[in-house]
Design goal:
With about 140 residues, the protein is an all-alpha fold. It has helices at about 1-20, 30-35, 40-50, 60-70, 80-105, 110-135.
Length: about 140
């Protein structure tokens, strides 16, 4: 389940990159800044270290995570800014939902639980900014 979570986190970053490079028009600058707010790399590293190091567990490789992300990726409707923001919003929702599923596992440590909470809080902020952007 952690491999899927890491893959979904990768999808959030991909959606942010699509927004970062694909936005245009009057709202270009604000959308560009929104996309810049989405950085999960430090949190991803923290999660992998807390979940796998010292537990005699082998973390998934970037190749494994990328393959899973490609399997899970939805088609992107690249027809405009709202579509790009919506994809980012939905990707954040997917990760937040999966985090809640992972947190229900009895096998995760308090450290992993805390990191998952940090990731969830960060994505809730991004999701809120996306919602405001789509409904402005």
């Amino acid at each position: 389940m952690l491999t899927e979570l890491l893959a979904r986190m990768m999808l959030v970053e991909w959606a942010a990159k699509d927004l970062h490079y694909g936005s245009n028009g009057e709202s270009f600058y604000s959308l560009h800044l929104l996309a810049d707010k989405v950085s999960l790399s430090g949190l991803t590293d923290d999660l992998k270290e807390a979940a796998f190091l010292g537990n005699n567990a082998v973390p998934p490789t970037m190749e494994e995570i990328s393959k899973k992300a490609i399997e899970l990726k939805r088609p992107v409707d690249n027809t405009g800014n709202v579509s790009l923001v919506s994809t980012l919003h939905d990707s954040c929702s997917d990760v937040i939902y999966l985090i809640e599923e992972v947190k229900r596992l009895a096998t995760i440590s308090a450290g992993v639980h805390a990191i998952l909470d940090s990731i969830s809080q960060h994505l809730l902020v991004v999701k809120g900014l996306c919602w405001r952007t789509m409904n402005a």
